[in-house]
Amino acid sequence: MRRTRSRIALLTLSALVGSVLMATPPAGADPTGATATAGSGRSPLEGEERVRLVRIQLTGADMLDKVVAAGFDLEHGLRRVPTGIEGEAVVTAGQVAELEAMGVEILDDHESFAWSDEADGGFQVSGARAAQPASHEATVRVVRADWFTTKGQGFLYVEARTTEGQQADPVVEMQLENNSGRGTAFGFARTMSRFVDSGQYMFHRNLFKLDQRPSQIRVTSSTGGVAVGDVSDWLEDAPPPLTENRGYRYDFVDGYRTPQQLYARAHEIARQYPDIARIIYLPNQTNGYQRKAQATIGGTGEAAVVVSSAAWGHEGGNDITVEFVDRPGADLPLTVEVVGEAVRVLLAKDASGGLASTAAEVAAALEAGSQGLIDRAHPYRTNTGTGIVAATPAPVALTDFLDQKRVGAPEGEVPRGPATIPVLRIGKHRDGKKPGVLIQAQDHAREWVPATTTLETAERLVHNYRSDRETRKIVEDTDIFLILSNNPDGANYSFYNFASQRRNMTNHCPDENADPARRNSWGVDLNRNYRVGSGHDGYAGASTSCVSDTFQGPEKLSEPEAANIIWLVEKYSNIKFMMSVHSNGGQLFWQPGAYIADGRITTPRPPLGDEAFYWQSAARILSQVKAHRETVVTPENVGGSSDVLYSSAGNVREDLYHTYGIYAFGWEVGGSIYNPATGNWQGGSFQPVWEGDPQLVSGHAETMEYANGIMEMFRVAAEWGRDKKDPTSRLVPGDGRYSGPVDVRFETNEPATIYYTTDGSRPTLQSPRYEATEFREPGQVFHVTETTTFNWFSVDAAGNIEQNYDPTKKDRRNRYRTATITIRG
Question: Domain range spanning residue 391?
Answer without folding.
Answer: 292-397
